[in-house]
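Translate sequence into structure tokens.
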Amino acid sequence: MVAVPKSADVLTRFRKLRGFLKGCFASDYSRSRLIIGDHNLSYSNHTLTKVVDVNQSCMEDTGICGQEVLSIMTDQLPDYTAMTVRLHKSPERLFHLSFSLEDIYRGIRIADDERTFSLIWKKLYEGKFVVDPLYHRIGLGRLIMFNQLRLGYCFGLKACEIRAADENGMLTWPKMGFKLKNKAETEAFIHHCSFGFSFLKPYLDEETQQKYQEIIDGLDVNNPYCVWDVMKMTAPLNATPEQLEAAIVGWSLRENTYPASSMALKTQATRFVDVLLYCEAFECSFDFNDAKQIRELERYCRRSFQTGKPLDFSQNGKLTFR
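Result follows.
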């Protein structure tokens, strides 16, 4: 008797084959590639000379072999994913790093990003990181960004600079250990928080008002980490969307400061910090040699920044390897 495969199995195999053929006929398939499992890395430079050995060329230009680059970028990724990483060296000694991550079985693009880094200035710059909404809130974005920061550290870079914007940028990057970039950004952030609090505090209970007033008063322009204190202000607001909109218009000084989509997001939020920081934008940075930032990143991602290994937190707050 011949076993007939289930339709789901046939569909899965078809999708895998489709993904493979799609990759074969992609515009950059002619590049030499390093392949580890379902993941691959291509490397090129401005000389237009075909790279024969990705490992060796990557090592000569960056100090890290291609296999290590791909290993760091794909560390801890789920089995159902396949990542394509592209690394290109430009004439200005800048390197362009991009990737795309796909769901092998569904044939869906999960995430992609492209960013630049400089081995001269020792900086990893802002990118265009996008995650499909279908894959939000499962930790994939956090995992990928952690791997990119680790890769920057292994390249010998000193810092990553970004503009925390989009819908929830200021609610995400500080959790990953990012601090405000400089004194001017810190001053602008504190002013925003102080002014916003004055309009939102009527919707907090009296005890929380007093507690949050002390936090706001304690924010210091010389302390770029103060954004982490504001992230803890998660008390619920006892307000209707209409009341929140009136408060937001009040602290923004003029109407139409926020697009309709941003205003809708803010007014549908229920926590103080969400209403305060949704759709806001501030310059932030991550110093690869700042122990305080690294500790915050490790606490949020539960992985070692140096090794990538999973970490456990004991009750006394100390980190231990699993």
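Note: DSSP finds twelve helices and twelve strands in the chain.
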